[in-house]
Every structure is written in structure tokens, then in C-alpha cells.
Amino acid sequence: MDPLRLMCEVVDIETLTRWSDTSVPNYDVIVDNPNFKPSPFPVDETINKKVILWNGDVTRLNAEAIVNSTNEALNDRNLVSDRILLKAGPGLRKELRTVVKSCRTGEAKMTKGYNLPSRFILHTVGPRYNLRYKTAAESALFSSYRSLLQLLRENKIATIGLSCVHTQRRGYPSYEGAHIAIRTVHRFLEKYGRDIEAVVFVATEEDEAVYRSLLPLYFPRSRDEELFAAFHLPLDVGNADGEPVIAERQIRISGKPTQAPLANDVEESVNINEAFETSVSIGAHAFSKMQGDIDKQRKQKMQRLKGTPVEYFEHQKRYERLLRRAKQVDLSEIEATHCLYQSGFDKCGRAVVVFVAHYFQAHLVDQEKALLYFIDLMDTIVRKKFVVVYLHTLTTKEQQPTVSFLKDIDSMVDSRYRNNLSAIYIIHPTFWSKVLMWYFATFCVSGMKGKVQYIPGLEYLYSRVPVDQLDLPQFVTDFDQQVNFSANSKC
């Protein structure tokens, strides 16, 4: 390749926007929960200055090292790998074939950059994703990212172009993989950031949207964003290194030693983690973390639930089967109706789910697919508190869901749906919609009645959910304006 042409194509890291310099949204967060727990990822301007999100060609980046996500034989055919091998030249192929030879899943190997602007190329193999072996996939993905970052320390590399190791061609869900990637980088920068100048998340157009939505959770740029993140981080944010924690495999230790050791009998401890510079902290790893009696906790949880333990587990298995099926069935027909979707967050930081009854043809829609779509959308949302905005605007009897359909949904979902539902806001209610909801909340679902709120107009909804967090159909806002105009005219 012409060196002059290559220089023209080079992207200088210094010209890219640091995460600390990006604009911060206006978060209107109200903390009214006495059990509120602060975010484990507080605002850190120093770390934020080292992070960059960039949608571009990694082979043009002048980082000291770039990442090539490949397969065990180092000959994977994908867009990024093909581009790296082509632009690096025959020297890279020869080194991979004669020196490196292979790379196991979760490992990382380093080669020269040859004709690329980067000095080094870090090769790693991400896991294939299988829902049955989700835990193993998460651990392997963490290992891949951690191995890459460990090579930075070992070789005193200060800048890296970090391509996505979790790839859709290996079936890895973008959001789940991005969570692991981002928090692993954050934990690494917490410990070893003084030696790192820049970590560039190199993303495709699709992945860029995912990263842009998740980076504020792990790299908050303001106090309000940190509070926002505290509400929306997943329950498992990993250990001190970002490694996924497997609660079921944590060692449970009960009882006390019969006699405390004497001071003279205790030798000075040695930090073997520092001695071996291992990426897994011994004693802090998931397999050696002490925890309370999990069996006792499960028993108490089941006692709070209706039915016998057998019924509870059968219900859970049935729900998980439905969730797996939802991942396999083509639900594009239901999605195209745009009758159910997530739309931002309310002033308490809770996810807002919008249901447009006018778009739901109750007597024409495939109710089985509608149920699967509902579960597929809601499964990640119901892990935390959420609210539902039910738009009854211009809805006929044929369009609104029947009581039997609502009962079917309630019988299929697990307890998270009821426990984490904070409120149902019914917009533009009619007499019959109130009767339907009263009957359903009173006789079908216990504990639902107190969560239903009837809201006559959007202005009352905006006091609960910011305008910029709501994606409403045009006919809803038009109808609301007509109603308000008519009311004002009468006055």
C-alpha cells in the first residue's frame, strides 16, 4: 500500500472526542427511596478523559494496539479481521501461521502491526453464545476482555482501539456483551489507569447506539447521571475486576472457629495477587466469596409465594420455556404494530413502558405471539421498578385487550412483573375502560388496584414523566389538544 495514502487515512486519537467532553443530558432524577443504594461507579473525571466511543475503521486508528476478534485458528472470515489481514500485509499472516498458530477462547495473543498505523495487534477469541451455557459465555467473554487489557500492562501499551469481542456472528446479544466489556474496562482503569492514555471503543453503527446508551451507567459525567445510573445498572455488576459473579457457586461457610488464633501465631499475609499479577483476585473471586445460607433464602422466598415449592418451580420453568420460544419465533408482525414499547424513564428513574391500545387489534392479532412479544420485551425491564402508560385514546371495544387475555398474561409471568410494577397510568380513560380495569385489578390480580391511576390529559402525565422521555403517537397529542381546546372554550 502507498505510504502516503495510508498516512492520509490515519485517524489520530487526539482528534477524537473524549467521553468527558461529550454533552450530558438533563437528568431530572428524584430519589424518594429510603433503601436507595449509590452507584458502584461514581463520577471520575480522570477515567472519563481516557475513554472514547468511535464509529469507524479500526485499521485506520493510530492507537499503539488494536483488537482483532477472531477464531481459534486465527483465520476467521469477518469484515474487521479481513480488513486487518489485508492492510497489515503478508507479514501478519506469516506470524500468525508460524509463531502464534492458535488462540483459545478467552485468551489474547499479540503480534506486530506491520503495515497498519498501530504498532501491535491483539488477537482474541470470543465465546459462542448459548442460552443454556450463558454463565460460561459470560465468564469467557470477561476473560477475553481482561486478557486484552492485561497485555497492555505487560507491554506498557498506553492506547488501544478496542473492537467488539462479543459479536452477533457468534450469537452474543449486543447489550449483554457491552455490559461486560464496559464494566471490565472501567474496573481496569480504576486500578491501572495511570499507565493508560486512551481506550477507544471502536463500534459499528449498530453497536454504537448500544454503547452510547450504556456508557453513562458505568462512566457517569455528572452527579445526576450517577443517580440515574444507580437506578438502571443491572443487579450483577461483577466483582472488583468486573467478572460476573455466580451466586449459586459461592462457597457458603457457617459457624465460628472454636478458638481465635493468638497474635503471635499469625504470620504476616502475603498478597499473592500482586506477586503473580493475576487478573483474578484470589479470595475475592466468585468461587471463594462467603455468603449467607442460600438454601434458607430460597426457602423464605418460596414461603412468601403462593403455592407449593413444586408449583413455584413448575411456573418458573414454564416462563423460561416461553422466554426461549420468544427468542426463536418471528415476532416482527407484532413489533410492527408499535403497540408496546419502552419509552425513556420517569422522574424517579423508573423505566416507562407504553401500550397504545388503539394499535392493538384484540380480535385479529395472534394472541400467542402477542404474549411472546410481551415477555421478550419486558423480561429485562421487570428486573427493576417500572411504570406502564396505557394510552386509551380513541380506542374502540374491538381494540382493547380482553379480561381473559390479561388473565392469561398474568398467569404466565413471574412475580417480578407484579412486584416491580410501580404504577399504571391510564391516559384518556372512558367509562368502560375504568370498569374493565376495576374488574381486572379487583378480582384477577391482587395488589394491583392501588397502582392504577386515571389521567385525563397529558399535562398531568408530564408531571410524572418528562416530555423528552415520552414517545407518543401523533394522534394522541392531537386528541389531547382538541380536548383541552374544547374544555377551555366552554370556560
Automatic annotation (TrEMBL):
A Pfam family of this chain: Macro
PROSITE patterns in the record: MACRO
SMART domains the record matches: A1pp, SEC14
Occurrences of domain Macro (ranges): 38-219
Family statement drawn from the similarity comment of this UniProt entry: Belongs to the GDAP2 family.
Name of the protein described by the UniProt record: Macro domain-containing protein
UniProt organism field: Ridgeia piscesae
